[in-house]
Design brief:
Shape: elongated
Structural class: mainly alpha
Order of helices and strands: HHEEEHHHHHH
Strand content: 5-15%
Helix content: over 70%
Number of domains: 1
Number of strands: 3
Length: 220
Amino acid sequence: MAISLWAAARVKSAYARGSEIPASSGCTGAEAAAKILDAAGIHDVEITEHDGLLGDHYDPMHKRLVLSTQNYHGHSAAALGVAAHECGHAIQHKIAYAPLQWRMAAVGATTFASQIVTWLPLLGLFTGLGGFTSHTYLMLMVAGWGIIMLFNLVTLPVEFDASRRALQILPKMRFISPGKETQAVDSVLRAAAWTYVAAFITSLLYLLWHLLPLLLGRRH
């Protein structure tokens, strides 16, 4: 929890600083995204706006690039950095980037695993069925957290690669200038990457928390 809170605070702080630095190109996040996708030969991805802070994402199932209002209309280095990062995912989808393909394939199993690790402890708490040290309970929790941990592990190269693409594309297409603008984008994307690292570490710790009793039990 501490790691996750630290990562979330860091990305909000970096985004706030980056939002104060205007991009020299004067483009909005939506305009930059449209030009990046066009340059990459991607013409079937819809760019949409939604309310909410830092809820930006690329939806490969519906080929939709979703930008928060601040980034859709924003002219800051942070806005362009986030928009270019999401375009990086669209480019990954076009070229069938392997880690993204694995991540997409694992969505269903991960959703089911998330339901297990959320509801099974509550079921045991309120019904007393199985108990928190029972072999079956621990095995189910290990399986659930194992799937989530692997999903988070696969997510890391997907996110780092998208950020790498963004940092290459933005200066190359002259959306941002060297110096403060590039540094701001780099800071925002690095901070955002830590949220995924934190998610992986958290899921790994939960996996070990439930796995160790099983391993120790076998030794006895």
